[in-house]
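Ticket #4471: complex job returned nothing on first submit. Input attached below:
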Amino acid sequence: MAEVFLEHVYKVYEGKVEAVRDFCLDIKDREFMVFVGPSGCGKSTTLRMIAGLEEITKGEVRIGDRVVNDVAPKDRDIAMVFQNYALYPHMTVYDNMAFGLKLRKYSREEINNRVMEAAKILGLEEYLNRRPKQLSGGQRQRVAVGRAIVRKPKAFLFDEPLSNLDAKMRVQMRTEISKLHQQLETTMIYVTHDQTEAMTMGDRICVMKDGVIQQVAAPIELYDKPCNKFVAGFIGTPPMNFFEGNLANKDGKLIFVSPGFECPVPDAWKEKMEPFCNKAVTFGIRPEDIGNEAAERNPEMPKVKAKVEVIEPMGSETYVYLTCATTSFIARIDPHRKLSVGQDIEFALLMPNAHFFDGATEKAII
Ligand code: ADP
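Support reply: We reran it on our side without changes. The output follows.
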């Protein structure tokens, strides 16, 4: 068990690729921290610096109270689970899990106890004599996790461990890793590009873009209060809709104006929005806040007129793809509502859940 601290960490690869810039983060003891962001944003590089597989260009990494910048990976007391499992193909499941302990000269009895305990936790007891190629993808992933568990590390690092699994298996392994975290009560740092994995697994999520932390927060806080347009668009599926426009002052009332869509700014937001008068702003609204019951029933909610382009029934809800002048957007609505492609429609917007972003900096205003 350990805290992991990163202080002003930079990684510059040869050829001057700045993969990670001024990364500052305190990961708490027993926390499940997820690094999420699009491909190439520096997630793996950061994880690999914590593991010691990548040199730190500048800054400091501490595990517990020890600075580990110059400590070899094997001496950092952490275990890493990789995307490709990295199992030894010629060894049995048992030997794959036991291998690291044998190298560290643990007694035969201790090795057996630890392997059997891990096999029990992971439901691998009946596969101990098989070789990796005789296992399914999910089972191989479990062996890779088992190999980490037997070492009883201070922290587990996961680098996109579920990307090679099919969709159903991914969901299953996701809950297994979450359960494992509760059971082992160990710090876990988990890298993924998949925002659903991040949202469902993380105690906190660190959203990255271009090597820079954008926001670190609990899942629901990221969803409710994204700090900028990037985080707003990255967290949530389908993603938040954006309308680009300007803020106007009409007879003392602030109005958001975009092609084909206008809406008054609620009085409660006036003070924060006023400095953006006559400037470019982005209006953000999530698909679930368009045309829902709460919005449609409230006559004070603004409305958007749009044309229905595509209808996707999902069973529990329907995704409706719409256009309003030059803006395309998505609504998630009640599946029993009758709609047809090409239809002109008006949807109410649940304004208290809307967001505004500075058109220049993309930072959240509301
Ligand atoms: P992610 O895990 O978010 O997909 P990475 O950490 O793998 O991103 O990569 C971050 C950036 O660093 C990318 O631009 C990538 O091309 C670059 N990069 C990664 N590894 C190397 C390397 N060994 N040499 C040079 N550039 C690298």
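The chain is about 25% helix and 35% strand. Closing as resolved unless it happens again.
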